[in-house]
C-alpha cells in the first residue's frame, strides 16, 4: 500500500471532529432485504468506494474533483457504476440454493486506466473491470446516418468508420469467473502483494488463485477433519500481508490467529506463528467460546500489526508477539450482562468487521443501535458515534454518544435496554489516506469526514 | 494471409465503378462494429481483404487510425487484430511505411489482457525486423521508450519484450539509452514489471556486448535474484541459464555461481523448485566442471528437500542429469553421489515424489548397464512395484521396455506378475483402466506363451467388470491382442470364452459378447465370423431383454460387410426381418436400419458384380449419418450403460462472461 502514509492527517479518532457528509439509500422504514449492504471497500487511492449488497449488486461511487464554488466540500462521492455482480443460483447436485449476496469486495491495485475488483458470494469469485469509454464509431457503408438501408448496387465507394467523442460511458464487464473451488461458504478474499495471486477462504479451507487462471486453484490450508464429528473450529477470516508476499494469516472461531509462511511449504497446514491470548479463568462462562470467535482480521498498512475483532472487543497484535495482544479495546462491554438474550435472538453470532485509518493510528469498528466506535491508539481515547439521518445536514458535527450500563441514566445517555439490536453496523471502511469514513447501516451508506480544513 | 500482401500492385485502390464487388467489402467494414462478437471477429480476420480493397493510402490514413482507437473490444477480437497487424507491412506500402503500424500496436500493447499484450509485442517484434535502421531509430525506438516510461504497468511490461529486437541494430548512443531503460525497469515499483524484466533478462543479455553483460546484466541479475518477491526471484533462475551460456567458466564462477548457489538454498520452496525444474538446462549451461563441483551437491540437497514439490521436481530430473554427465567417470558419480539419494526417495513419504521417480528411474538401467542394474536398480524397481500407491507401480510398468533391453523380461517377470495382477484388481476403476491400456504392450514384450499362461485370464475377467468403461476397454484390448497374436490364437483362446458369455444370466455380460464380436470380427476374418460368431449372434436375437435384441441388430449391421452373401441372404436377413416386427420400438428401429444397410449391400453384391469376394462396401456404414435421430436415444430407455462424463467447460464459462452494461439510471438502484 504505497499511499498509506496519510502523513498529513492527524491521529484520527476522537481528537477529530467528525461531521456528516453524505448518506446514500432509501429513507423508507421498510427495508427490502436485497438492499441491505453487505460489504464496503475503498479503492487503494480512495477515489472510488465500492459497496455490495444482499441482492448481488455492486455500486461504485467516485469522488468528485475539488469544487471551486464550494471550497469547503472536499469532494463528494457520487455513483460511478452500478452492476449486478452475482445472481441467485441453485446447486442441483447438492440441492442447495446459492445466495447472490456479495460477501466481500477487494480492489486490485490500479494498473491501467481501468479499475479492477474482485467480488464474491458464498461460492463464486468474479473479477470485474470497470472502464470508461468516450468515443463512438460513426459511418456505415450499408446504411445512412439515420439508419435507413442503402441500395447495395449504389455503393460506389468504401467508407471507413471514424471515431467521434461521445458522453462518458462507464462499463463493468466480468473478466474472469473463479468457480467450483469451495465446498463451504467463502468468507474472505485477499489480493497478494505480488499482484498476480489472491486467496479465498471458506469455513474449512483456503485456496490460492492466479488472477489470470480460472480453472485451477491450489488448496493451501485445509482444516477439515477426517471425521466431521471431530470438527471443533472453523476459519472465520483470512488476509495476506500487505508487503510480504509469502505471509498470510487466518483467524478461527476459537479466537486464535495463525500466521503461515508460504515459502516453507506448498501446503500451509502447519502455521509458523500462533497468536492466542490465555483465557482468564475467572470470566469463563457458557458464552466464552462464542464471544471469543474472531469475526475479522486486518493487517495494519505498515504490516507490523494486525487487528482482530471478536464479539465484545477489538485487539491489536504485534506480529512479533504471539502470547497476547498489545492492545485490547472494549467495543461494547455493557453487553456482557446481556449475552443470554443476545444468544436467544442470534445477535451473538453477528460478524462485526474492523478497519484501520491510513496511518494506522486509529481503528474503527461497529456496534448496535447504529453506533460505531473509534479508538485512538496514541491517546488511548475512544468515542462512540451514531450513523443516523437525524443530524444529516452537510457538515453537521456528530455528537458523541454514551450508553449507560445501569444505575442512574444521565442526560444524553442511552440505556442499554433501549438499544435497537436490529440496527447493527457490521461493515465500515476508512479512506486509505484521509479522514473520510464509510459506514454501512442496513440499507444506508453514510459518509463522514473530519471537520478540519 | 500471406498471399494477399502484394504492395503497390494497383489492384488495391478500388475505383468508383459502382460494381457489386465492393458490396462484400462494405459488409466486412460495417461488421467491424457489429454487435455480434463472432461477426466482428470474422471481419478482423479478413482485415487484409479490407486493406487490399482500400489500397495502401487509405489503409494508412483511415483504417489504421480507426483501429488504433478500437481498443475497447473483446479480448478475442483484440487478439486477432494484434495478430493480423504483424503481417500488415505489405498492405500499408512495404517496409518504408512499416512504422504506420506502430500506433495501433502500441495501443494494443497497453491493454490489461495479457494474451493481447503478448500478441501485440510479438507482432511489434516481427515488424521491427522490417524497419530500416533509420526508421528503427526514428520510429521504433521512441515507441519502446514511450512504453518503458508509461504510467501503467501494462505498457512497461510490454516494453521489456522489445529491447532485444531493437538493440542490435541501434547506434551506439541509442544502445546506451536502451540499456538505461532496461535497468530502470528491473527495479520498477510493481512486481509485474520486475517479473517481465526478469523473464526477458536472458534474451536481452544475448544481444548485448560481453562487457555490458558483465558490467550491467550481472548486477541486474543479482538484484532480481534477491528481490523481495518470490515470483521475481524464481524468474531470475531462468535468466541464469541464458547468462551462463555467455560467460567463460572463470567469469561464471565469479559472477553467477554465488547467486545460483543462493537460489538453490532459497528460503522459498518455489524458488528451489524452479532450480530443480531447470536443472538440466542449468547443467548444460554451466558445463561439466561446475556441474561436478557445484550442481551435484545442490542436486543432492534438492533430492532431500523438506518440500515434497521440490523433491518431486528434482526426482523428475534424475535421468536427464545422469545422461548429461560426461561419459568419463559417469558411472562412478552416479553410483556414489546420486544413487544413495535415489534409494532414499524410493521410500519417500510423499506419493508424488515416488511416482515422479518411478517415471524416470527405469531409464537409469541403460546408463548403468546390466551388472549394476541387476545388483542395484532391480531391488529399487521391485520395491516400487510393491508400492502402496498404484500410480508408482503403473509408472514402473509403463517403462518396462527400457529394462527389457538391458536385462530381459524374464528377470523381472517373477516379481512383475503379482504387481500387475494386483493393479488389475485395484478398487479404483481408473487404475484398472490404465493397466488394461498397457496389456497389448506387455503382451508384445512377454510373448504369447507367457501371456496365455499368466495374463489371459485377467483379460477375460475384465470383460465382466462391473464398470462399463472397463468392459469397453477390455473389448478393445482383445482386438489389439488378436491383431498381435493372429487369428488362430484368437480362435483357440479368446473366441470360445467370449461366446460362452452369450449364455450368462446377466444381460450386461451377454451384451459384452456382442460388443466383443463387433470388435473382433474384422480381425478374425470371414471364416471365424461366419462359422463361430454368427450362430451365437443369431441365437441371441431371441433374448428376452430388449437391449440385447437391438444390439443383435446393431451387431449384424456391423459384421454384415465381413459375411458372404449367402449367409447374409439366408441367415441374417430373416432374423433381422423378425426383429423388425419386434414389440419393442427400439429393437424395431435398429433392425430396420440394419435391414436397409444389409439390403443395400446385397444389391451391390448381386448387381453388377456377382463376385462375393468384393471387399466390404464402404458406403454401407456411412448410411447412419443420414438417419433421423433414433427414437431410443431420447426416449430415456436407451441402453442402460451410457456413461455421463461431466467436464468443466471453460469455454462455456467464457460465454457467460459477456459484457454487461448498466446505464447509470436513477430508478435502477433504490438508494440513489
UniProtKB/TrEMBL annotation, chain A:
GO terms for cellular component: protein phosphatase type 2A complex. Keywords: Repeat, WD repeat. It comes from the Eukaryota. SUPFAM superfamilies: WD40 repeat-like. One of its GO terms (biological process) is regulation of chromosome segregation. Gene3D superfamilies: YVTN repeat-like/Quinoprotein amine dehydrogenase. One of its GO terms (molecular function) is enzyme-substrate adaptor activity. Belongs to the phosphatase 2A regulatory subunit B family. This is Serine/threonine-protein phosphatase 2A 55 kDa regulatory subunit B. The lineage of its organism: Eukaryota, Metazoa, Chordata, Craniata, Vertebrata.
TrEMBL record, chain B:
It holds the Pfam family VPS15-like_hel. GO terms for molecular function: protein phosphatase regulator activity. Residues 245-476 form the TOG domain. InterPro entries: 2AA_helical (IPR055231), ARM-like (IPR011989), ARM-type_fold (IPR016024), HEAT (IPR000357), HEAT_type_2 (IPR021133), PP2A/SF3B1-like_HEAT (IPR054573), PP2A_Regulatory_Subunit_A (IPR051023), TOG (IPR034085). It comes from the Eukaryota. Keywords: Repeat. HEAT repeats lie at residues 24-62, 101-139, 178-216, 217-255, 256-294, 295-332, 338-376, 377-415, 416-454, 494-532, 533-571, 572-607. Residues 609-640 are annotated as: Disordered. One of its GO terms (cellular component) is nucleus. Transmembrane segments: none annotated. Belongs to the phosphatase 2A regulatory subunit A family. PANTHER family: SERINE/THREONINE-PROTEIN PHOSPHATASE PP2A 65 KDA REGULATORY SUBUNIT, SERINE_THREONINE-PROTEIN PHOSPHATASE 2A 65 KDA REGULATORY SUBUNIT A BETA ISOFORM. This is Serine/threonine-protein phosphatase 2A 65 kDa regulatory subunit A beta isoform isoform X2. It comes from Physeter macrocephalus.
Amino acid at each position: 500500500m504505497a499511499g498509506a502514509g496519510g502523513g498529513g492527517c492527524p491521529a484520527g479518532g476522537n481528537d477529530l471532529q467528525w461531521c456528516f457528509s453524505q448518506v446514500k439509500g432509501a429513507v423508507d422504514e421498510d427495508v427490502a432485504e436485497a438492499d441491505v449492504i453487505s460489504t464496503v471497500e475503498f479503492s487503494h487511492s480512495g477515489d472510488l468506494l465500492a459497496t455490495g449488497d444482499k441482492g448481488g449488486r455492486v455500486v461504485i461511487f467516485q469522488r468528485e474533483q475539488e469544487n471551486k464554488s464550494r471550497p469547503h466540500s472536499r469532494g463528494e462521492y457520487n455513483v460511478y457504476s452500478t452492476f449486478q455482480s452475482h445472481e441467485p443460483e441453485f446447486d442441483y447436485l447438492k440441492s442447495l440454493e446459492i445466495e447472490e449476496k456479495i460477501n466481500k469486495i477487494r480492489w486490485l491495485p490500479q494498473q491501467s486506466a481501468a479499475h479492477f475488483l474482485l467480488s464474491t458470494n458464498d461460492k463464486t469469485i468474479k473479477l470485474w473491470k470497470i472502464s470508461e469509454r468516450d468515443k463512438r464509431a460513426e459511418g456505415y457503408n450499408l446504411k445512412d446516418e439515420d439508419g435507413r438501408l442503402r441500395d447495395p448496387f449504389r455503393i460506389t465507394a468504401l467508407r471507413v468508420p471514424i471515431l467521434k467523442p461521445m458522453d462518458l460511458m462507464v462499463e463493468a464487464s466480468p473478466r474472469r469467473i473463479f468457480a467450483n473451488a469451495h465446498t463451504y461458504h467463502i468468507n474472505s478474499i485477499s489480493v497478494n502483494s505480488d499482484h498476480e495471486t489472491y486467496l479465498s477462504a471458506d469455513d474449512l479451507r483456503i485456496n490460492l488463485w492466479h488472477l489470470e487462471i480460472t480453472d485451477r486453484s491450489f488448496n493451501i490450508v485445509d482444516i477439515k477433519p477426517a471425521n466431521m464429528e471431530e470438527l471443533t473450529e472453523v476459519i472465520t477470516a483470512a488476509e495476506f500481508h500487505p508487503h510480504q508476499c509469502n505471509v498470510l494469516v487466518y483467524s478461527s472461531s476459537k479466537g486464535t490467529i495463525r500466521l503461515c509462511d508460504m515459502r516453507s511449504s506448498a501446503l500451509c497446514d502447519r502455521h509458523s506463528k500462533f497468536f492466542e491470548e490465555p483465557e482468564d479463568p475467572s470470566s469463563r462462562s457458557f458464552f466464552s467460546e462464542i464471544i471469543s470467535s474472531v469475526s475479522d482480521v486486518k493487517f495494519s498498512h505498515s504490516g507490523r500489526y494486525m487487528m482482530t475483532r471478536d464479539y465484545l472487543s477489538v485487539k491489536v497484535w504485534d506480529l512479533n508477539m504471539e502470547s497476547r495482544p498489545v492492545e485490547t479495546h472494549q467495543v461494547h462491554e455493557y453487553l456482557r450482562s446481556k449475552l443470554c438474550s443476545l444468544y436467544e435472538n442470534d445477535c451473538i453470532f453477528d460478524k462485526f468487521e474492523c478497519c484501520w485509518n491510513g496511518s494506522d493510528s486509529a481503528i474503527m469498528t461497529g456496534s448496535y443501535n447504529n453506533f460505531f466506535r473509534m479508538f485512538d491508539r496514541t491517546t488511548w481515547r475512544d468515542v462512540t458515534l451514531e450513523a443516523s439521518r437525524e443530524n444529516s445536514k452537510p457538515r453537521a458535527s456528530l455528537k458523541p454518544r454514551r450508553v449507560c450500563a445501569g444505575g442512574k441514566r444521565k442526560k444524553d445517555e442511552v440505556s442499554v435496554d433501549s438499544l435497537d439490536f436490529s440496527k447493527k453496523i457490521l461493515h465500515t471502511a476508512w479512506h486509505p489516506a484521509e479522514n473520510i469514513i464509510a459506514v454501512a447501516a442496513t440499507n444506508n451508506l453514510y459518509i463522514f469526514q473530519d471537520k478540519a480544513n | 494471409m500471406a498471399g494477399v500482401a502484394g504492395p503497390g500492385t494497383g489492384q488495391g485502390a478500388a475505383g468508383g465503378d459502382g460494381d457489386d464487388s465492393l458490396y462484400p467489402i462494405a459488409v466486412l467494414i460495417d461488421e467491424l462494429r457489429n454487435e455480434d462478437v463472432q461477426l466482428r471477429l470474422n471481419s478482423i480476420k479478413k482485415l487484409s481483404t479490407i486493406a487490399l480493397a482500400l489500397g495502401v493510402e487509405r489503409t494508412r490514413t483511415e483504417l489504421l487510425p480507426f483501429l488504433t482507437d478500437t481498443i475497447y473490444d473483446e479480448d478475442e477480437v483484440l487478439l486477432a487484430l494484434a495478430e493480423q497487424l504483424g503481417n500488415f507491412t505489405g498492405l500499408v506500402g512495404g517496409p518504408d511505411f512499416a512504422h504506420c503500424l506502430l500506433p495501433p500496436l502500441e495501443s494494443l500493447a497497453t491493454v490489461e489482457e495479457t494474451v493481447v499484450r503478448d500478441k501485440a509485442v510479438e507482432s511489434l517484434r516481427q515488424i521491427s525486423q522490417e524497419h530500416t535502421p533509420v526508421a528503427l531509430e526514428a520510429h521504433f525506438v521512441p515507441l519502446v521508450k514511450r512504453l518503458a516510461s508509461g504510467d501503467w504497468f501494462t505498457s512497461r511490461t510490454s516494453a521489456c519484450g522489445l529491447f532485444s529486437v531493437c538493440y542490435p541494430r541501434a547506434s551506439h548512443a541509442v544502445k546506451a539509452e536502451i540499456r538505461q531503460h532496461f535497468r530502470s525497469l528491473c527495479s520498477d515499483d510493481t512486481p509485474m514489471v520486475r517479473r517481465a524484466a526478469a523473464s526477458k533478462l536472458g534474451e536481452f543479455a544475448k544481444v548485448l556486448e560481453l562487457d555490458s553483460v558483465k558490467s550491467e546484466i550481472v548486477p541486474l541479475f543479482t538484484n532480481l535474484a534477491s528481490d523481495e518477491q518470490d515470483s521475481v526471484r524464481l524468474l531470475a533462475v531462468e535468466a541464469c541459464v541464458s547468462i551462463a551460456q555467455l560467460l567463460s567458466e572463470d567469469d561464471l564462477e565469479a559472477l553467477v555461481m554465488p547467486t545460483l548457489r543462493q537460489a538453490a538454498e532459497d528460503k522459498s520452496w518455489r524458488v528451489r523448485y524452479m532450480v530443480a525444474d531447470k536443472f538440466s538446462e542449468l547443467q548444460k549451461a554451466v558445463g561439466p566442471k561446475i556441474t561436478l563441483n557445484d550442481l551435484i551437491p545442490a542436486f543432492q540437497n534438492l533430492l532431500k528437500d523438506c518440500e515434497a514439490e521440490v523433491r518431486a521436481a528434482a526426482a523428475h530430473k534424475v535421468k536427464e542429469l545422469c545422461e548429461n554427465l560426461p561419459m568419463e567417470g559417469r558411472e562412478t558419480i552416479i553410483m556414489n553421489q546420486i544413487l544413495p539419494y535415489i534409494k532414499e526417495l524410493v521410500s519417500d513419504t510423499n506419493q508424488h515424489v515416488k511416482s515422479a521417480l518411478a517415471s524416470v528411474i527405469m531409464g537409469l538401467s541403460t546408463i548403468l548397464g546390466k551388472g549394476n542394474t541387476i545388483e542395484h536398480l532391480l531391488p529399487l524397481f521391485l520395491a516400487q512395484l510393491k508400492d502402496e500407491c498404484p500410480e508408482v507401480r503403473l509408472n514402473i510398468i509403463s517403462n518396462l521396455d527400457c529394462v527389457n533391453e538391458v536385462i530381459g523380461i524374464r528377470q523381472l517377470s517373477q516379481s512383475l506378475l503379482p504387481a500387475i495382477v494386483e493393479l488389475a484388481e485395484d478398487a479404483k476403476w481408473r487404475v484398472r483402466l490404465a493397466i488394461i491400456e498397457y496389456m497389448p504392450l506387455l503382451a508384445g514384450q512377454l510373448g504369447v506363451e507367457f501371456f496365455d499362461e499368466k495374463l489371459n485370464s485377467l483379460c477375460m475377467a475384465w470383460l465382466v467388470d462391473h464398470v462399463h468403461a472397463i468392459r469397453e476397454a477390455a473389448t478393445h484390448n482383445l482386438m489389439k491382442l488378436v491383431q498381435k497374436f493372429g487369428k488362430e490364437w484368437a480362435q483357440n483362446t479368446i473366441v470360445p470364452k467370449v461366446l460362452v458369455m452369450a449364455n450368462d444370466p446377466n444381460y450386461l455380460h451377454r451384451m459384452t459378447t456382442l460388443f466383443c464380436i463387433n470388435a473382433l470380427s474384422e480381425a478374425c476374418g470371414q471364416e471365424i465370423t461366419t462359422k463361430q460368431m454368427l450362430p451365437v449372434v443369431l441365437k441371441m436375437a431371441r433374448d428376452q431383454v430388449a437391449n440385447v435384441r437391438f444390439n443383435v441388430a446393431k451387431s449384424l449391421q456391423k459384421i454384415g460387410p465381413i459375411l458372404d452373401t449367402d449367409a447374409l441372404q439366408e441367415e441374417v436377413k430373416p432374423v433381422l426381418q423378425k426383429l423388425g416386427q419386434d414389440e419393442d420400438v427400439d429393437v424395431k428401429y435398429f433392425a430396420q436400419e440394419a435391414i436397409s444397410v444389409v439390403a443395400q449391400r446385397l444389391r451391390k453384391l448381386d448387381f453388377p458384380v456377382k463376385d462375393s469376394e468384393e471387399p466390404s462396401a464402404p458406403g454401407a456404414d456411412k448410411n447412419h449419418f443420414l438417419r433421423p435421430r433414433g427414437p431410443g436415444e431420447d426416449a430415456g430407455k436407451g441402453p442402460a450403460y451410457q456413461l455421463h462424463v461431466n467436464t468443466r467447460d471453460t469455454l462455456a464459462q467464457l460465454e457467460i462472461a459477456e459484457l454487461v452494461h448498466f446505464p447509470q439510471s436513477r430508478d435502477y438502484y433504490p438508494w440513489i
